[in-house]
Amino acid sequence: MLRIVQEGLTNVTKHARPGARTVAQVDVRDRAVHVLVTDDGGGGTGNAPELAYLGSPPGHGLTGLGERVGLLGGTVSAGPVGSGWRLAVELPLDGDTASASLVRALEEPTAADAHRPSPATASAPR
Q1: pLDDT by residue, tens only, the chain of 126 residues
Q2: In what order do the strands lie in the sheet with 32-39?
Q3: Rounded to the nearest 5°, which phi and psi values hold at 43?
């Protein structure tokens, strides 16, 4: 769950304007874990922080997240809502191996990981 919330908050940091209100929720109901990260896009007239990332390679966070969650039979929904953004993830809690499978799927590399620069070669935003 940490990696899912982390991805949602990373996207807020990169794309929302200063002053954005962000809500992260983790809920267990209906035999599933539900994670929701939303932001309102922020107020004001300043540029969105994503402009500072123009020289950086595009990320693959949502792609990798979708692959990992899909391995567990879960779903990922991400997209704009009003002037903000919404990331919603549902992971089923079926059987005794759900926890072990969840940890394994969230930690194993995916195809999207192959496109990420290593920490030693990645450039930090300026």
Answers
A1: 888 999 999 888 888 888 889 999 999 998 899 999 999 988 655 555 544 444 445 567 888 889 989 988 999 999 888 888 899 999 998 754 455 555 565 566 656 555 555 444 444 443
A2: 22-29, 32-39, 84-92, 75-81
A3: -100, -165
Q: Which residues pair with residue 96 across a beta bridge?
A: none
Among the listed residues 113, 36, 23, the one whose alpha carbon sits nearest the alpha carbon of residue 68: 113
Vertex 3: Cα angle to 38 and 106 (nearest 5): 130
Domains of the chain by range and CATH? 2-113 (3.30.565.10)
Greatest Cα pair distance in the chain:
50
Within 18-92, strands assigned E span 22-29, 32-39, 75-81, 84-92
